[in-house]
Write a structure and sequence with these properties.
Length: 380
Amino acid sequence: MDSIITQIKSLAQDADEASRRKILDGLRDLALSLETPQDTMQRISYLHLQPALVRVGLDLNIFKILAESDHPLTSDDLAVQTNAAPNLLSRVLRYLASVGTIKETGDNEFTDNNITRSLSDEGIASAIYHNVNIIAPPIFALPNFLAENKYQDITSSVNTPLQKAFNTDQPAFVWAQTQPELILHFNKFMEAEQRGMRRWFDVFPIEEKSRNLNPDQALFVDVGGNIGHQSVALKARLPEIQNDIIVEDLEIVLASAIPCEGVKTIAFDFFQPQVVKGARFYYFRSIMHDWDDEKALIILKNTISALGPDSSILIDDMVLPNSGVHWHATQVDMTMMSSLASLERTTEQWHTLMEKAGLKIVGIHTYSARYNSILECVPV
Ligand SMILES: C[S@@+](CC[C@H](N)C(=O)[O-])C[C@H]1O[C@@H](n2cnc3c(N)ncnc32)[C@H](O)[C@@H]1O
């Protein structure tokens, strides 16, 4: 067994991202194939504990303390540093070690491992906060919601499990504006989610397609661009181009925009007609997946009215295959459904949406093993 583990580790060390994922998924399938009914019961029925207890670890700063310590710490050491009751803490630590998020080195003594170090990263911590605080309650409300609605499609963004879970009648993005902590975590989560990934312009011929701009023509409008990660990266890629790169988002979000010379911000509601006319690119990253076809069509039509003769719309979202969709994508799809009444789309669903908008897809450039793709769209 030890020699098999060593072989797998060395295989993974030299693997590219797609092969490394294949190894992880193969090991997952192997572990599942070995489960007894008892194992399955233990695994699935307690799954929800892990994010909740990891959040406790984050609240107490346990992962960072262990990652920054050059020697193992006892639960009493950690109790002093966190002000948590020693007995409570030792039980929490024992749980966290048992699921591999920290490493037990002796009786009530712990150190870090690769998972501890990942969890001590601010962006990854924010992803956990966002998912535990905002995504999990609607997911737990989902079974009753579906039963009450006789297992019909969730089609209204004001009637989803999110409204049930948080007792609100507002759509998620409006409700979110009343939750400043949510916005801070969400913005950091968005950064962590993109980190280390190939960028869309690594496959999209951005230099070639940015030629012959008029001097007063905007190059790039990052619609719903959050705090500007993509626009800042694009500016770094095209430093010599002086045409405007503009991040549009809600005012409350732009308040935390990354300051960057050459990147402007405009507070803008994409359910209103686009205010920047004739830009070369109108870019939507992870926007269409937030909305059902009806709302996505409003956003697209508001953009089409601003297009100039050489403009195009770039949609940066997942393009799902028809079968064998990876769990990284199916879990986002379930989240979209439960909180936003929206979806991740297959190639066919993207074509249908664009046809309804009066657009045609002239290219699909896939840039990650997670189906992230640029759909280049122009009017029919
Ligand atoms: C899933 S995030 C994607 C953010 C960014 N494009 C990225 O990929 O990191 C969706 C974004 O849409 C913004 N948004 C939601 N409703 C909006 C509206 N009506 N007008 C403009 N932006 C909106 C949110 O504030 C958020 O930043």
